[in-house]
From TrEMBL:
Entry keyword set: Membrane, Transmembrane, Transmembrane helix
UniProt topology in membrane: Multi-pass membrane protein
Chief location category: membrane
Subcellular location field: Membrane
UniProt protein name: Calcium:proton antiporter
Pfam (any one): Na_Ca_ex
Keyword Nuclease carried by entry: no
TM region positions: 12-30, 36-55, 67-91, 103-123, 130-157, 169-187, 220-239, 259-279, 291-314, 320-341, 348-366
Alphabetized InterPro entries for the sequence: Alkaline_pH_Ca-Antiporter, NaCa_Exmemb
Domain Sodium/calcium exchanger membrane region: residue ranges: 36-190, 224-366
Coiled coil region boundaries: none
Organism: Microtetraspora malaysiensis
Signal peptide as annotated in the record: none
Length: 368
């Protein structure tokens, strides 16, 4: 009975938090907040993020895989794009010029090393060997590597515009190309080769998760869809309310400005990380990898086109090119991930390598 009451209480919170967060957003918008209120807003922001991903997961369960992973990835990316745009608009001086780059790069490192590494760690601790579909995962990784190199590495070496930045035509080309690749991948994942993105057994048999789990009702699914949209609005708005406090905390700690982008990415990807760990524990590593690489792809494929549009109204440069250290980390990530997915099987060692690269990224972000 006590456990039942706890479950009911948690479900009530999942429905109440998005509404409460929107109400708080209306009260706090455009005001200078005292420290206590900043903490309350931060808690509501975290609750809204968790609630958003929960309701996205309910909708995802209804539509099945790989549509489920796609919905989660897009929902999280909408949050990320809203955070980036709101903070770029409110940022002062040159702090907005590199915010998109720092956040997108952090998202790629978190998803391709943090989420993938932790998912493989959980899976291999339970079953010694993590099994997944190398064809589908490899195509996802190839798309991530292409759009990441095109949008984050090439600006460092182009010469038309000064600094690690694209000229306007180059930016639009990269935006259209990355969006086109993302759409092409979505079509491939959900229509043409859906079976390549479903979990598999050690014998290579495809597992359709929907066949084994009960589906939520239509009423529950529609309610979760509405609350998902409400939670997304709350997250974007509250993040803008919190952005001055985040930047002030980074400056007060004497940390590099790029840490702001890392904080944003960690915030929006934490719930998705928990989702990936949960499905990895059930043995569905393919879904975890769909979440990881799919989020990295969506982060670039949707953020860069949005930033290209927003840049029309923003003054000052838009720095997208990575520095030498970040390029080395990105290259190492692609190389390690390629070796991980090549055979369709991963061990505890693969998980450890990804997590060490992720730890190096976090350490060098704080102490470059």
């Amino acid at each position: 009975m006590s456990r039942l009451r706890d479950v009911q209480w948690i479900d009530a919170l999942r429905y109440a938090v998005p509404v409460l967060a929107v109400v708080t957003l209306g009260l706090a918008w455009g005001r200078v907040l005292p420290p206590v209120v900043v903490v309350v807003v931060a808690l509501l922001l975290a609750g809204a993020v968790l609630s958003a991903v929960h309701h996205a997961e309910v909708v995802a369960h209804r539509v099945g895989e790989p549509f489920g992973s796609l919905i989660l990835a897009v929902a999280v990316t909408v949050i990320e794009v809203g955070l980036i745009v709101s903070m770029m608009v409110s940022a002062e001086g040159g702090s907005a010029s590199s915010l998109a780059r720092d956040t997108v790069f952090a998202a790629v490192m978190i998803t391709c090393n943090g989420i993938v590494g932790l998912s493989l760690l959980v899976a291999t601790m339970h079953r010694r060997v993590a099994v997944f579909n190398a064809v589908g995962t490899g195509s996802a990784l190839a798309t991530v590597a292409t759009v990441a190199t095109m949008c984050l590495v090439l600006p460092t070496f182009t010469t038309t515009a000064p600094g690690p930045a694209f000229s306007p035509p180059q930016l639009w080309f990269a935006a259209i190309a990355s969006l086109a690749l993302y759409v092409l991948f979505v079509v491939t994942q959900t229509i043409q080769y859906r079976q390549d993105f479903l979990p598999v057994t050690e014998e290579g048999k495809v597992i359709d998760v929907v066949e084994h789990d009960g589906l939520p009702s239509t009423r529950l699914t529609m309610g979760s869809l509405v609350l998902l949209l409400v939670a997304l609005v709350a997250v974007v708005g509250l993040a803008k309310v919190e952005s001055p406090a985040v930047e002030a905390a980074v400056r007060a700690a004497g940390l590099p400005q790029s840490v702001v982008g890392v904080v944003i990415a960690l915030l929006v990807l934490l719930p998705e990380t928990l989702t990936a760990l949960r499905v990895a524990r059930r043995g569905h590593v393919q879904i975890s990898l769909n979440l990881g690489f799919g989020s990295a792809m969506a982060s670039i494929g949707l953020t860069i086109p949005t930033i290209a549009v927003v840049s029309i109204w923003l003054s000052g440069p838009l720095l997208l090119g990575l520095g030498p250290m970040q390029i080395v980390l990105l290259a190492l990530t692609v190389a390690v991930a390629t070796l991980t997915v090549a055979s369709g099987r991963a061990t505890l060692l693969h998980a450890g390598v990804h997590l060490v690269v992720f730890a190096a990224f976090l350490f060098l972000a704080i102490s470059p």
